[in-house]
Design a protein that fits this description.
Elements: H1 6-32, H2 40-62, H3 67-88, H4 93-96, H5 98-110, H6 114-137, H7 142-162, H8 165-175, E1 181-185, E2 192-196, H9 197-214, H10 216-239, H11 247-267
Antiparallel strand pairs: 1-2
Helix pairs in contact: 1-6, 1-9, 1-10, 2-7, 2-8, 3-5, 5-6, 6-9, 7-11, 9-10, 9-11, 10-11
Length: about 270
């Protein structure tokens, strides 16, 4: 019986970091984003935009046009780095420009090296997943979270199993050595496994929303159950049917029992 604890622990640590940082930075984030709220309509539009971008990337890569993916990703991640550096460095824009500039330089100079492939790519994927979680987690409403979770899971299933666009887009990103995956050695079984940046983000977003709605106890419990769900999926995949799989389903299956349980307790007045 083959199993792996490396990726479940990485998912656990990254998601827990998102929860703890969200709790610590909540007041600052509210001030910076002027307490904006992401509605169900916004969540729907975001899912549509993501599916369109993924499909375009997959189509472009099929014909050899993958440079737009690189430009889009580098711009988006640089803007994210600048935003949080600006926030944490007391709005000193000249210092906030350093992290994104450093990221671009490292990518340009080292993307074909082992240090990038083995370490820096994973590090930046984790950083971007956490920052995206903190950004969107601070403005999502509870209702919008449910709408986003349901729609993104449906779209992910379609893009993986039906159109295969998610697989082609992921391969294009990996070819460009973009930090869109965390790829680490498995343990104790010998091998490698990858999990997408978007899946880390979804796990963080859902757990942060539980933090905002019901408190740290349930958010932490969600982190545990999501990681456990991924461990169980890996156990099945390694021993029976390894394949590309929409990891959003795994994240949702770990989060949903906690969200439904706590919601039912509230409806009963607990």
């Amino acid at each position: 019986m083959y199993f792996d604890i490396a990726m479940p622990l990485t998912l656990f640590a990254t998601t827990l970091a998102s929860v703890l940082l969200s709790e610590k930075l909540e007041d600052k984030l509210k001030v910076v984003f002027e307490e904006r709220q992401f509605t169900s309509k916004d969540a729907t539009l975001l899912v549509i935009l993501m599916s369109v971008v993924i499909t375009l990337v997959a189509t472009s890569s099929r014909y050899g046009f993958i440079n737009p993916l690189m430009m889009l990703f580098l711009f988006s991640c640089s803007a994210l780095l600048f935003t949080f550096a600006y926030l944490l460095l007391d709005k000193r824009w000249y210092l906030a420009m350093l992290p994104p500039a450093f990221f671009i330089v490292l990518y340009a100079l080292l993307r074909d090296s082992l240090i990038w492939s083995l370490y820096l790519m994973n590090l930046y994927a984790v950083i971007f997943a956490i920052l995206a979680t903190l950004y969107l987690g601070s403005i999502f409403t509870w209702k919008a979270t449910w709408v986003f979770a349901i729609l993104i899971t449906i779209i992910d299933v379609i893009l993986v199993f039906v159109t295969k666009s998610m697989i082609e887009a992921a391969k294009a990103g990996l070819e460009l050595k973009l930090p869109i995956f965390v790829i680490i050695p498995t343990f104790p079984v010998v091998g490698k496994i990858g999990l997408g940046l978007g899946d880390f983000f979804l796990a963080g977003l859902l757990s942060v929303q539980l933090l905002k709605k019901y408190g740290k106890k349930y958010a932490t419990l969600s982190v545990v159950t999501i990681s456990a769900a991924f461990f169980i999926f890996e156990l099945y995949s390694f021993n029976y049917q390894p394949q590309w799989f929409p990891a959003t389903l795994i994240v949702i299956s770990g989060w949903l029992p906690i969200a439904l349980w706590r919601s039912s307790m509230k409806s009963k007045g607990c």
